[in-house]
Amino acid sequence: MCLTNTVESGTIGGSYRYYYNHNNIRDAKFFFCDTKNAETGKNIALQYCLNNDCFGYLLVDTQDSSKCREGFDDLIRDVGLENIENISNYKDLIKKTPSTRVAKGSVSDQDIFFIVGPTDRESLNYHYNSSDYLSKLSQQDLEDMFDSDEEIVYIPITRYSSEDSYPAISSVSGFFTADFAKDIRDIIFGKDAKIYAIKNHYVNKLKNKGLNLVDFNSYLKTKLDLNKDTLAYSVKLQDLQKVCVNSSDICNDNKTTISFFNNIVKIFGKDYKKYIKNSNLVRCVDDLFLLKFFSSRNVFSSDYKDIVQQILVEKNSDIDLKTVKRNPHNIIVMINYLYGKVNEVDEYLNIIRKDSKELSLDILSADSINKTIEIELDNNPVIRYIVASADTFVDLGVKIENNPMINNGSYHHYRTNHQPKMSENSVLLLRTQLGSLIS
């Protein structure tokens, strides 16, 4: 095979002699290279010539295979259009046809399998390592793959298990069926993704045939880098949520802190800043709202979301509240699901984290919140008495109840069951008087 811009006269009519003085006795064949991948066309042409003991000429447009008939007007006129065939007519010559015979003790004699692909393909129906998650390629699947110049994403396998450093086949298969991963799958892999498992010994053979193979890890790193602007906010937000979970756990373990928060919210509702003039306690309530919200363990009603939104505005935060509770780009969960090991997870997430600043959120540490509340309660005996005596509960997932005597249930910690509910004026008076006692 060689590159040429002329037709050697000796190749026509069989007078050309080549290696070992073998005399070619057939006329040369002419082909249009209409395959998407020029290397595929060359392999087909070479195999045709070997099979038919003849010379061949392949008319190639290296930029656009659809234009392979352009620029060869003189040649087409001399040879005759009817004597030039599309090379794709002979693509079966280089296909690896699956054998129906399976060697004793083996799972399959194929070398390529679907991990992710058409759902109607035949499974291997054999239990060996991860073979349960693989399915066979049809003849048409093989032809499409060999004829494609698009990236073929694969995981190298040995004995039907992923090679070291690659995700387990079961993890990849599960990831492509998990509901939580739909949005991130579409961003990284597209809606009609195909992921192949290729036996390790066959990878280089396919590359030599001109297929555009890209291993799964390299593909994922490239896609993360290309989409890092889209995904960066998600990663930074989830990093922040992780910090908030840790701080929230510490605060939740302090009974005084939680009782203080519940009582303040129960009595003063969303207007706690209006009645409480102690800036230290107000700051603690603000930060406890944020910790509870960003720890992702609570469902917030629209009333309480409004409170969180106002706190963020007052803190000049750059966080978009709409993305927090229903975050579509759950990239950290995805990487953990696929790889699981901390060092491997960080290797991929750092691609997104680089060149991006952390989200700004000014929150006191959990220890500072606990300590501040303890000090302030010592200085305010009335609120300390209420916190110690009324172990109330606030459901952040329901609408704020304006009457502090209603406790979202059958227990009323501020009155006996036989006492009348407070009027609106009484509620306002309670808040005003109690707020004035908190210095």
Quick description:
By secondary structure, this protein is an alpha/beta fold.
Shape: elongated
Beta percentage is: 5-15%
Low-confidence stretches: 98-105, 408-412
Number of domains as seen in the coordinates: 3
Number of DSSP helices? 17
The number of distinct β-strands equals 10
Q: How is this structure best described in words?
A:
By secondary structure, the chain is α/β, with parallel strands linked by helices. The protein has three domains: 9-94, no CATH class; 112-226, no CATH class; 229-437, no CATH class. Helix content is 44%, strand content 8%. The chain contains 17 helices and ten strands. It has helices at 38-52, 73-79, 139-146, 169-175, 182-189, 200-208, 216-226, 228-252, 255-268, 272-275, 279-294, 302-314, 331-338, 342-353, 366-379, 381-389, 424-437; strands at 17-18, 22-23, 29-32, 56-59, 84-86, 112-116, 152-158, 161-162, 195-199, 213-215. The strands form three sheets. Strands 6, 7, 8, 9 and 10 form a five-stranded mixed sheet that branches. A three-stranded parallel sheet has the order 4-3-5, covered by helices on one side. The chain has a two-stranded antiparallel sheet with strand order 1-2. α11 runs antiparallel to α15 (366-379) and α13 (331-338) runs antiparallel to α14. The termini are far apart.
